């Protein structure tokens, strides 16, 4: 957070200015609403002669480790779920080369690997993510955890690229007149997985930024 903005907010609150007045003044000076909200949220709304700073989330090795495990498990489960769906689509709609149907010799092996990865990664993600959310329910300040914010925005970036690639692939195939059923199903798979992740973490990021 910008130190100048934080110091101004502290002095304005100490002078008795209302939060709405402080926000309006900062907005008129060109500050963004997200920065204003973060600065105001840094001070608790409690009756005291001087502004009382909220407890700030700290960075610990354990917290970084837990969030890395959670998000790596999420990425692993999402990737293998998509790959599994693709393999099943390929099995249901095999490609034709001339008059012959082409089926990959490694299809069943790949499917077994995808299922194995999902059965390991997904339960790890669910168990740890539920524990994290229970901890946040007990202490809402934990939602502002820096590892959580970094990995949340990284996930938004990855899924946004994934969705953009999905749209580009759809347009490319449409322009080439190759919108086969298998292609549409694969694009829909990407849209569901990436879109679901993007929507969830976008809402989470907005809730964390809300004052």
Notes on the protein architecture:
By secondary structure, this protein is mostly helical. The protein has two domains: 3-53; 61-209, no CATH class. Helix content is 73%, strand content 5%. The protein contains seven helices and four strands; from the N terminus they run H-H-H-E-E-H-E-E-H-H-H. The protein has helices spanning 3-14, 19-28, 33-41, 61-92, 107-138, 146-175, 181-209; strands at 43-44, 52-53, 95-97, 100-102. The strands form two sheets. The chain has a two-stranded antiparallel sheet. Strand 1 and strand 2 (52-53) form a beta hairpin. The relative contact order is 0.10. This is DUF5671 domain-containing protein. Keywords: Membrane, Transmembrane, Transmembrane helix. The chain crosses the membrane at residues 64-89, 111-129, 150-173, 179-202. Residues 63-200 form the DUF5671 domain.
Short recap of the structure:
This protein has 211 residues and is mainly α. The chain folds into two domains: 3-53; 61-209, no CATH class. The chain has helices at residues 3-14, 19-28, 33-41, 61-92, 107-138, 146-175, 181-209; strands at residues 43-44, 52-53, 95-97, 100-102.
Unreliable runs, pLDDT <50, ≥5 residues? none
| Structural domains: how many | 2
Fraction of residues in H or I helices: over 70%
Q: Span from first to last CA? A: 14 Å
Oligomer: single chain
- Summarize model confidence as the mean pLDDT: 85
Tell how many strands the DSSP assignment holds: 4
The major beta sheet can be summarized as: 2 strands, antiparallel
Bulk shape: elongated
Strand content: under 5%
Count of DSSP H/I helices: 7
Secondary structure category: mainly alpha
H/E topology pattern: HHHEEHEEHHH
What is the spatial order of strands in the main beta sheet?
1-2
CA gyration radius, whole angstroms: 24 Å
Organism: Acidiphilium cryptum (strain JF-5)
Keywords: Membrane, Transmembrane, Transmembrane helix
Transmembrane segments: 64-89, 111-129, 150-173, 179-202
Domain DUF5671: 63-200
């Amino acid at each position: 957070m910008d130190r100048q903005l934080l110091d101004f907010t502290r002095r304005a609150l100490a002078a008795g200015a209302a939060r709405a007045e402080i926000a309006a003044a900062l907005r008129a000076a060109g500050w963004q609403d997200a920065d204003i909200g973060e600065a105001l949220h840094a001070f608790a709304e409690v009756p005291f002669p001087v502004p009382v700073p909220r407890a700030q989330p700290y960075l610990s090795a354990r917290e970084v480790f837990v969030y890395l495990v959670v998000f790596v498990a999420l990425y692993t489960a999402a990737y293998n779920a998509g790959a599994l769906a693709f393999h099943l689509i390929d099995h249901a709609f095999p490609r034709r080369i001339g008059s012959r149907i082409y089926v990959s010799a490694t299809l069943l092996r790949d499917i077994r690997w995808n299922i194995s990865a999902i059965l390991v990664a997904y339960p790890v993600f669910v168990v740890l993510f539920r524990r994290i959310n229970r901890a946040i329910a007990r202490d809402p300040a934990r939602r502002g955890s820096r590892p959580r914010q970094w990995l949340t925005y990284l996930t938004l970036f990855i899924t946004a690229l994934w969705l953009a690639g999905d749209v580009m692939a759809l347009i490319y195939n449409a322009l080439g007149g190759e919108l086969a059923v298998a292609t549409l199903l694969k694009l829909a798979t990407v849209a569901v997985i990436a879109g679901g992740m993007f929507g969830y973490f976008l809402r989470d990021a907005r809730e964390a930024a809300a004052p």
